[in-house]
Amino acid sequence: MIDIIEIMKTIPHRYPFLMIDRVTDLVPDESARGIKNVTINEPYFQGHFPGYPVMPGVLMVEAMAQLSGILAFKSGVKGNSVLFMSIEKAKFRKPVVPGDNLVLDIKVTHKRGNVWRFSGKATVEDNVVSEAEFTAMVTSLEQPLT
Fold first, then answer.
1. d(CA 20, CA 127)
2. Which of 106, 110, 122, 142 could cysteine-pair with 130, CB 3.0–4.6 Å?
3. Catalytic pick among 48, 74, 111, 121
């Protein structure tokens, strides 16, 4: 198990864009499982949608990407950031609302150097709520891009 302190040592994301609360399972170079506890305190619920808060699908994909970054770094890849190169076959099947525990499962489907392909799935109570395939590049960002 990887707790939030270790997660923050592994990836550069911070509030309000740190989307992983803990990693419950990790097999280097193969797969990872993580948890995002969805609470009403999330800043995006102020506008998405007032009166009926729904977690944006793009943030579920972001959570999958962050878990993928943790997997890559824990597999020994050098760098400090993971950047999307492509997102494919994204599907959003059911709404995720405050109180849900989003369980994220990531599998490595291909890797070459610092470019990795992943398949991700998010579930709530064993129901698939979203899934996607994506390619990411592990890199070192030495200074801000702007």
1. 19
2. 122
3. 48
Residues 96/37, Cβ–Cβ less than 8 Å: no
CA distance 132 to 64: 9
Q: Which residue has the tokens 């864009």?
A: 17
pLDDT in tens, 93-116: 999 999 999 999 999 999 998 899
Catalytic residue status for 48: yes
Three-state DSSP at 38 gives: coil
Residue 37: strand, helix, or coil: strand
Give the CA diameter of the chain: 46
Domains of the chain: which residue ranges?
A: 4-139
pTM score, whole prediction: 0.93
Annotation: CATH topology of 4-139: Thiol Ester Dehydrase; Chain A (3.10.129)
